[in-house]
């Protein structure tokens, strides 16, 4: 959807932009499909901060999204396209013929009144329809892909993302992910045809720190601006470089550009080509 800019009445307004919300057809969520989200501030069950720079933010209610879409062969009508404060993509409110209502991640081009269906067999290839990869023609773009059959969509769910269906060989389908990585997914895994909605979300310029605070993102202080007791980069007179062979975290571990993926993972054999374009030998 289009991005909206305001007149530069303040310094923050001058460089910021907002979502126009032109595609939203319903402003209030379904009460039965929402749950309250308790703010944890980046802390785990023991109360220790495991993710820094989190806290505060606007109060949000979590929309209960149906990632499995396991109501097979029951046509569902799109009743509304809604905003979700917990993601960049839109949500589609589905009304099934038996009266049940569910939220799903909306596909680009989906409109109120459209009818979509989820099935284990091949159905019409149109945006929003969901079926196993073995039933989808090669070359189609898909999203909300199951990593393990039956677990629900886990891959390619962000705003404007899609994966390219490359080939079908034996037990696996070959998909090219948005990162450029080519990997094998079980041919029995479900996927939704089309591209995730709201592709212009990545073009929004937040403009000022206050908008990040509303999102629950707290300030980040540079390590080189600290004292040596607080960070390995700290200390020195005036503005100075890091002064080390390589950057480090506050706890002394290598940082900035260091590979964090664990080696010898079971899923390594399913990766045909890494996102850095190095082919698997």
Automatic annotation (TrEMBL):
An example of a Gene Ontology cellular component annotation for this protein is: large ribosomal subunit
- What InterPro entries does this protein map onto? NA-bd_OB-fold, Rib_uL2_dom2, Ribosomal_uL2, Ribosomal_uL2_bac/org-type, Ribosomal_uL2_C, Ribosomal_uL2_dom3, Ribosomal_uL2_RNA-bd_dom, Translation_prot_SH3-like_sf
Q: Where is there biased composition of kind Basic residues?
A: 272-281
Query: Gene3D superfamilies this protein is in?
Result: 2.30.30.30, Nucleic acid-binding proteins, Ribosomal protein L2, domain 3
- Start and end residues of each Large ribosomal subunit protein uL2 RNA-binding domain: 42-118
Stretches of Basic and acidic residues bias are at: 230-240
Ordered alphabetically, the record's keywords are: Ribonucleoprotein, Ribosomal protein, RNA-binding, rRNA-binding
Asked if the Swiss-Prot or TrEMBL record annotates the protein with the keyword Ribosomal protein, the reply is yes
The UniProt entry's GO biological process terms, in alphabetical order, are: cytoplasmic translation
Q: Where is the Large ribosomal subunit protein uL2 C-terminal domain?
A: 125-254
Pfam families noted in UniProt: Ribosomal_L2_C, Ribosomal_L2_N
Q: Where is this region: Disordered?
A: 222-281
**What function is annotated for this protein?**
One of the primary rRNA binding proteins. Required for association of the 30S and 50S subunits to form the 70S ribosome, for tRNA binding and peptide bond formation. It has been suggested to have peptidyltransferase activity; this is somewhat controversial. Makes several contacts with the 16S rRNA in the 70S ribosome.
This chain belongs to which protein, by name? Large ribosomal subunit protein uL2
Q: What is the lineage of its organism?
A: Bacteria, Candidatus Uhriibacteriota
